[in-house]
Write a structure and sequence with these properties.
Length: about 220
């Protein structure tokens, strides 16, 4: 009989009651293990160095190193750890910045009881997860409500790959065009979906058309 493989979760939030509530939710499910609790970003980085975690659940407003800097530094310090923001802030600028800094998901605290488990499962599986209100904020930004184009955050190669995806090229075709591996193409696609906060290739294509990267034909 094989033992259950649990998803290891590290919690970073400066409110003790929030951490206790999140721990209680997760410990009620056998597939999760809370491997640590910290109250600021610096302690979170130290904990990641000492205790590997599959998912980092973090607040954005913390003393010292805030959640934005933690997102950026955790991405480099522990690239295999997924990063799920758990915040009370739903303002578009907060959401957009968190996504730019490397958030794999963004969950509002008032949705934690219903959606925390699903959110962690989604980001752990390589998908994105956003609360409905957060998704609306991101959609507003994509439609231009937030000022500049969302494509501004992409590297030159990511823009090229996005254009190829929108033109209907397969992973193999894109790899051949740029003389890169299929795995690298898949990495670019995953980064595009994370940076642009979309969940499917179809949404990538619609966004590329809307931003004028390719024509509607």
């Amino acid at each position: 009989m094989t033992s259950l493989v649990r998803t290891r979760v590290l919690l970073a939030d400066d409110h003790n009651l929030v951490r206790a509530g999140v721990r209680r939710i997760l410990e009620s499910h056998p597939g999760f293990e809370v491997v640590g609790e910290v109250a600021d970003g610096t302690a979170a980085l130290e904990a990641l160095a000492q205790t590997p975690a599959d998912v980092l659940v973090l607040d954005l407003s913390m003393p010292g190193m805030d959640g934005f800097e933690l997102l950026r530094r955790a991405r480099d310090a522990s690239p295999h750890t997924k990063r799920l923001v758990l915040s009370m802030h739903k303002d578009p600028e907060y959401v957009a910045r968190a996504v730019r800094e490397g958030a794999d998901g963004y969950l509002l605290k008032d949705s934690a009881v219903q959606d925390l488990v699903s959110a962690i499962e989604a980001v752990q599986a390589g998908r994105t997860f956003h609360s409905p209100e957060v998704q609306r904020s991101l959609s507003d930004l994509v439609r231009g409500g937030g000022g500049g184009s969302p494509l501004e955050e992409l590297t030159a190669r990511e823009r090229e790959v996005l254009k190829c995806i929108a033109d209907g090229l397969s992973t193999r075709d894109i790899a051949a065009r740029f003389d890169i591996s299929a795995r690298t193409v898949e990495t670019h696609r995953a980064n595009l979906m994370r940076k642009l906060a979309v969940r499917s290739v179809a949404q990538l294509v619609r966004l590329a058309i809307r931003e004028g990267l390719v024509g509607p034909g």
